[in-house]
Specification:
The protein is 22% helix and 23% strand. It is an alpha+beta fold. The chain has a four-stranded antiparallel beta sheet with strand order 1-2-10-7, covered by helices on one side. A hairpin with a 5-residue loop joins strand 1 and strand 2.
């Protein structure tokens, strides 16, 4: 566990090794290149986004990574909910997909089904803030990730947390946590 982010819901940042990033990028790039051929993997119309290239990764191709993710999900569960359950929960991975987002595309604010979700950055363009003044607050949000919950700002609690993407950063959070 790299870093627990103090935000309303338990949000944890992990750093994924270079080899995982390289391996997943290779598989993701192949799936994206075959986009028209792999029409059954195209899930862009099913997701809460205005992104044209979103493809589900076939789980058998990434079996070692899914085992690793399930290990992190159990670690997350034990850290935040371990005492609430008498029995060891069984986690299953329902889907992993690649979002290949370009300028002018975005994800609407949404949540996921299930109990635990994650977001991993495999690629991040270097020119996301081109044309913006470096002192402009929008530089933090350009291409970024934002989590939102709650209805107000109480002492010691934030209801919005913004993250600037970094390759290899993995965020694990409750699936019902709103994000965009």
């Amino acid at each position: 566990m790299k870093e627990i982010i103090h935000f309303g819901s338990p949000l944890v940042k992990y750093e994924i090794g270079h080899e995982w990033v390289k391996s997943l990028n290779t598989i993701g790039d192949q799936v994206i290149e075959k986009g028209a051929i792999a029409a059954n993997l195209d899930i862009s119309k099913k997701l809460a986004s205005a992104v044209n290239k979103e493809f589900q990764l076939p789980l058998p191709l990434i079996e070692d990574f899914t085992d690793y993710i399930l290990k992190l999900a159990k670690e997350y569960h034990h850290k935040f909910n371990g005492k609430m359950f008498k029995h060891e929960p069984r986690f299953t991975l329902s889907a992993i997909w690649v979002v290949s987002q370009v300028a002018g595309e975005w994800n609407y604010i949404h949540s996921h089904s299930g109990s635990i979700s994650g977001i991993l950055y495999l690629k991040v363009p270097q020119n996301m803030t081109t044309g913006l003044d470096p002192n402009d607050k929008r530089c933090l949000l350009a291409g970024g990730l934002s989590f939102a919950e709650g209805s107000g700002s109480l002492n010691y609690r934030r209801n919005i947390h913004n993250i600037k993407p970094v390759v290899g950063d993995l965020y694990i959070f409750p699936s019902d946590l709103m994000h965009t």
